[in-house]
Design goal:
The protein is an all-alpha fold and 330 residues long. 78% of the residues lie in helices and 0% in strands. It is globular and about 65 Å long.
Length: 330
């Protein structure tokens, strides 16, 4: 069963990657793909579209999907709450504030958007941690409450900045960014985000056994030799970097980090170490599928969060209904 699940996820990722590379306003066929890879289409529009647009966009999308899913899995393990999402500490709100500031005050260049949104996400999490420490008491509860407070403050800042924006130009750019899109994904964005995502993902991978022990509770983890506070802070920091780096290149992508770990656990079983890596594969595949649909269903591209929110909300409702039926006594 476990081998079949890995093969299934690998096949799903390969198929979604290929589909993403072929589908779009300029469709490519398998014959075109062969010509491109064999060098028979050198210098043609097909080759330019494939290498400079499709492959770059597909790699960025897959990387962000895996990063958001891994961050969601880590947050849910750290807080021992399956309903925790990657923006629990206000990272998405902080990144949004940073990106809007880049649009309003720095011309909205790609470099400024990435830098400001990444810095905003990290700043929001740092403030959440400081606020949780100032409140005192239960750490898990305080971190979630702090994230809610920082998220509310970020939303207030977003509305204030949108009120200040030029309604004929800047406001539309802000709204579109907040809905998320990979339409501007390119090799430069991949080179900017990939090192951060890969570094944070590698650290989380090395800490996965300690993260698994933390899901048992602080006392149990400490009795097994885990340095609870440093490990928790390291995991939170890495998960935050994953989210902030992803948001900086795509805008807000809703629900992926919340739903994918649920989907993996409910379909493939509750094996922590296997779910850790399966969440990455599943998240990359599902975001690739959503992005392919976003640019294929209508003549104009649909913002990615419209599809991920729709799919995620429906799935979560079905999941909760099914779980309630299983727990209901006969």
């Amino acid at each position: 069963m476990r081998k079949r699940s890995w093969l299934g996820l690998a096949a799903l990722l390969a198929a979604s990657f290929l589909l993403s590379c072929l589908c779009g306003r300029y469709p490519l066929t398998l014959s075109d793909l062969w010509d491109i890879l064999s060098g028979q289409a050198a210098g043609t529009m097909r080759e330019n579209v494939f290498w400079n647009i499709r492959v770059a966009r597909t790699c960025v999308t897959a990387l962000c999907g895996g990063a958001l899913s891994l961050a969601g899995f880590a947050y849910q393990g750290l807080f021992r709450n399956p309903l925790v999402s990657p923006d629990v500490l206000g990272v998405s709100g902080g990144a949004s504030v940073g990106a809007i500031c880049a649009i309003l005050f720095c011309g909205g260049s790609v470099a400024a958007l990435q830098l400001f949104s990444f810095a905003g996400g990290l700043a929001a999490v740092a403030l959440s941690l400081l606020l949780a420490r100032a409140i005192g008491g239960n750490r898990y509860f305080n971190l979630i409450v702090s994230g809610i407070i920082l998220g509310a403050l970020a939303n207030a800042a977003i509305m204030a900045l949108k009120y200040m924006a030029d309604p004929t130009q800047e406001l539309a750019v802000i709204d579109y960014w907040l809905m998320g899109s990979f339409s501007l994904a390119n090799w430069d964005k991949l080179r900017g985000a990939a090192p951060l995502i890969l570094a944070a993902g590698t650290v989380l991978t090395l800490l996965r056994y300690r993260l698994k022990v933390l899901t048992l509770g602080d006392e149990e983890a400490a009795s097994l030799g885990v340095a609870v506070v440093p490990v928790r802070l390291a995991c939170i920091g890495c998960a935050t970097v994953l989210v902030a780096a992803s948001v900086s290149v795509s805008g807000i992508v809703s629900w992926v980090g919340l739903i994918v770990p649920h989907l993996v656990r409910s379909v493939l079983g509750d094996d922590f170490e296997a779910n850790f890596f399966q969440s990455i594969l599943c998240g990359a595949s599902l975001l690739l599928i959503a992005d392919t649909l976003a640019r294929s269903l209508l003549p104009s591209e649909i913002p990615i969060s419209i599809l991920t929110s729709l799919i995620g909300a429906v799935f979560l409702a079905l999941f909760l209904i099914q779980r309630q039926r299983r727990e209901r006594p006969c």
